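Input.
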Amino acid sequence: MHFALSEEQQALAEAARAFLAELPGPLAMAEPGQAYPEGTWTRLVEEQGWPAILVPEEAGGWGFGVLEMAVVMEEAGRALTPCPLFSTVALGLAALRAAPAAQARPHLEALAAGAVTTWTADRPVDPEGRTWRGVIDGDLADRVVLRGRDDRWWVLPADAFVRTRERGLDPTRPTATLQLTAPLDGEPLGQIDLDAAWRLRRVLQAAESVGLAQRCLDEAVDYAKVRQQFGQPIGRFQALQHLLADVCVAVEAARAATWFAAAALDLDLPDAPLAVLTAASQATEAACLAAGQSIQVHGGIGFTWEHPAHLCFKRAHATRAADPPRHLRAAFTDALLAAPAGG
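Output.
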């Protein structure tokens, strides 16, 4: 069996890479508390329209598949561009696609047009049911999909909250505490299929992690070619070659697993849930390995604030902390044990 991207998907990846190269890089948010570079999101929406890729055509979107969105997310992970693409498509869109179509449609239309939309699956942290913490891009989102204390789901506008940015591990992906200014009221969104929402989130997050891992590997290889030690490039040393070869194997395995998982969701294959868990675990581990080894290859410069290596490392480990691979592997094992014999 030969599985590869189609010509159209390859063209989409190349166009995404070229466009993202024009935008500010991760060092634009190296300092905690910095805002996203002005105009980045507007350009992304108006010139590329990526938030609409997975939105159904009847809701004003492109109606493309998960694999097409994964291709873009991989390039976004490679560029580490500071913008709310992840929160909008891997969180907000994932939740809305898993909600009843009639209630979700107006919110999907707004998302396709560029409304920054995020999601938190966590319940409120206070007894009154008005405060949520750790909401990705919660301080700038136009709309937030959230769960109330009674497990009903809501989509609320920005002006429904007092929003306070948190100091987190990854400065390029800020989180916030949201506090309602009034009790939940109005029409709820309806029941969200949490399993479906998490599957889409995980496969898009895996694609982003693969892109991040590839960036770290490429930067390490490029540096190993030019850094001289003992009169020759350090890339000639066998120990370093073995280190980078191990990273390359991990990245390629994670990419294959992620592409298969995305295609499995598009085709609604029976083993799609297991494929997603596999991809998410492998991609997260590959990103952490690549980010850590990239710092080692770069030596002293890799530990400086002026080099993006530390931001790659923080993104990889923040992703790992949010959805630990050990939990993913445990869920995979539980699903296998629960499957009927011979199934």
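The chain has a mean pLDDT of 94.
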